[in-house]
């Protein structure tokens, strides 16, 4: 049986370059916290156990992690004293001699394959490091080799000019063989510019002890670390490209892929068409053959087969759009269901309610769901017709097949197949317009006409 492996995920060091009240690892890419991406990769690599190291009082980070991996072991690093110090905070998790795989919470693009390759490399060395080559190595630890063997990792601050010129960098992921992990970690000191206990020093120690250290190379875009907002945006761009490519491979047409923004959990059926400039927030699923027209924004919504959304539609959380339903321009839907074939083609707010099968919501219709204190529901029955510019004041029910005259303010329930019109009687005064104009222009010269 293969040696058991514990993945230790480090999320205790805040750093200062994000300039944020939010812990770094909770910043999102593709609408999901960086740490959640890392935890998903850690689970997918087939490890036996995952341990998370957080800073003191960081219950927010631990809670988010438990949402991704219920039962994850969390450990607290009381003081930020370096990456090796942080790993030792979780010592209990691997103390029985398990292999250790250290992963940083700020490396969100990591793929499980990289982690598996690193684990496998422990068959030939006590320490295996994930490395990458980059044109811009600034800020990363440099991997120093002698005759093809990895001998040390030098942090930017401690490097000589010659070492800084090395472009093979440390991705931050390290595997330590169970037999040597604890003794290597315990031997690391803090004699460096930052006076931190650097995990990276495990390499020089392993080399000195002739235990062997190897580097496994990965593409830069799989391993970049995020220390500031600029890198956050760079990681976002890489992940967006991955998500767009995966959507297209799965049978989605993205007319201008670089203008469509996806979430890590966006789900598409086949033959969906997404026009340019659409944003998918978290929790969206789109059924087969649906079309999402330009400039629409969707979050927490499901779109049924063959439905048409936008242009300029906004679907907010709790929205369910049925098969073949149509949500047109400047229509906002929130916490509401539009059943199969229902239509709201122009300028409407549909919040907290239901639009029955095949019902039509006219232009300018508003579901008045909020009375200043609480939210109430509006229910529009199957096949009902709501005339333009109507206000449906919730709570209110419009029966199946009912008709609402344009411009009505509906405050009472309307029975099935009834017609409700709520507006004052129209009056006609023959010639009234002519008389009015004369009245208004009397005594004025030509230019006043
Ligand atoms: C680290 C590596 C560097 C590598 C780079 C890759 C070390 C000493 N340096 O530098 O070689 O090229 O990542 O992105 O390992 N953390 C703790 N406790 C601490 C310090 C850090 O939990 O006391 C955590 C942070 O939350 C973060 C990770 O460890 O998730 C890395 O820390 P960070 O400060 O970002 O290190 P880098 O300077 O990026
Ligand atoms: Mg970092």
Overall description:
Helix 1 crosses helix 2. The protein is α/β, with parallel strands linked by helices and 449 residues long. The termini are far apart. It is 22% helix and 30% strand. The strands form five sheets. It has a 20-stranded parallel β-sheet that branches. The protein has a seven-stranded mixed β-sheet with strand order 5-4-1-6-10-7-11, with helices on both faces. The relative contact order is 0.07. It has eleven helices and 34 strands. It is elongated, with a radius of gyration of 31 Å. A hairpin with a 2-residue loop joins strand 2 (28-29) and strand 3 (32-33). Bound molecules: uridine-diphosphate-N-acetylglucosamine (UD1) and magnesium ion. Magnesium ion (MG) binds at residues 104, 106, 225, 227.
Write the topology of this structure.
Blueprint: E1 5-11, E2 28-29, E3 32-33, H1 34-44, E4 49-54, H2 59-68, E5 73-76, H3 83-89, H4 91-94, E6 99-104, H5 112-121, E7 127-133, E8 142-146, E9 149-154, H6 161-164, E10 168-176, H7 178-187, H8 202-208, E11 213-217, H9 220-223, H10 229-249, E12 252-254, E13 260-261, E14 267-268, E15 272-274, E16 278-280, E17 285-286, E18 291-292, E19 297-298, E20 301-303, E21 308-309, E22 314-315, E23 319-321, E24 326-338, E25 343-355, E26 360-361, E27 366-368, E28 378-380, E29 385-386, E30 391-393, E31 396-398, E32 403-404, E33 409-410, E34 419-420, H11 432-441
Parallel strand pairs: 1-4, 1-6, 4-5, 7-11, 12-15, 13-16, 14-17, 15-18, 16-19, 17-20, 18-21, 19-22, 20-23, 21-24, 22-24, 23-24, 24-25, 25-26, 25-28, 26-29, 27-30, 28-31, 29-32, 30-33, 32-34
Antiparallel strand pairs: 2-3, 6-10, 7-10, 8-9
The structure holds uridine-diphosphate-N-acetylglucosamine and magnesium ion.
């Amino acid at each position: 049986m293969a040696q058991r492996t514990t993945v230790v995920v480090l999320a205790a060091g805040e750093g200062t370059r994000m300039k944020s009240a939010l812990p770094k690892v909770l910043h999102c890419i593709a609408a999901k916290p960086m740490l959640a991406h890392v935890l998903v990769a850690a689970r997918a690599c087939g490890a036996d156990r995952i341990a998370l190291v957080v800073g003191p009082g960081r219950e927010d980070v631990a809670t988010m992690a438990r949402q991704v991996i219920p039962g994850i072991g969390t450990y607290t690093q009381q003081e930020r004293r370096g990456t090796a110090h942080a790993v030792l905070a979780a010592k209990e998790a691997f103390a029985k001699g398990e292999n250790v795989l250290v992963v940083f919470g700020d490396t969100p693009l990591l793929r499980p394959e990289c982690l598996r390759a690193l684990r496998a490399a422990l068959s030939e060395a006590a320490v295996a490091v994930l490395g990458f080559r980059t044109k811009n190595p600034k800020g990363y630890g440099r991997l120093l080799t002698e005759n093809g063997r990895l001998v040390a990792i030098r942090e930017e601050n401690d490097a000589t000019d010659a070492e800084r010129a090395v472009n093979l960098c440390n991705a931050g992921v390290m595997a330590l063989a169970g037999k040597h992990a604890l003794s290597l970690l315990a031997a690391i000191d803090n004699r460096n510019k930052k006076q931190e206990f650097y995990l990276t020093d495990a390499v020089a120690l392993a080399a000195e002890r002739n235990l062997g250290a190897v580097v496994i190379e990965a593409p830069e875009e799989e391993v970049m670390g995020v220390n500031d907002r600029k890198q956050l945006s760079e990681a976002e761009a890489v992940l967006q490209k991955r998500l767009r490519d995966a959507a297209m491979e799965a049978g989605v047409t993205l007319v201008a892929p670089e203008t469509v923004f996806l979430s890590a959990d966006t789900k598409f059926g086949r033959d969906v068409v997404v026009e340019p400039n659409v944003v998918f927030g978290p929790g969206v699923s789109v059924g087969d053959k649906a079309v999402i027209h330009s400039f629409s924004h969707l979050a927490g919504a499901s779109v049924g087969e063959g439905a048409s959304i936008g242009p300029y539609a906004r679907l907010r959380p709790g929205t369910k759009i049925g098969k073949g339903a149509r949500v047109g321009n400047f229509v906002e839907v929130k916490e509401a269901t539009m059943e199969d074939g229902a239509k709201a083609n122009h300028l409407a707010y549909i919040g907290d309610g239901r639009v029955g099968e095949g019902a039509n919501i006219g232009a300018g219709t508003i579901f008045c769901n909020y009375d200043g204190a609480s939210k109430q529901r509006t229910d529009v029955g199957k096949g009902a017709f709501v005339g333009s510019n109507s206000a449906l004041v919730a709570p209110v029910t419009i029966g199946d097949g009912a008709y609402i005259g344009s411009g009505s303010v509906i405050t009472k329930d309307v029975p099935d197949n009834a017609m409700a019109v709520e507006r004052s009687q129209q009056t006609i005064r023959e010639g009234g317009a002519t008389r009015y104009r004369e009245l208004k222009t009397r005594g004025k010269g030509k230019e006043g006409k």
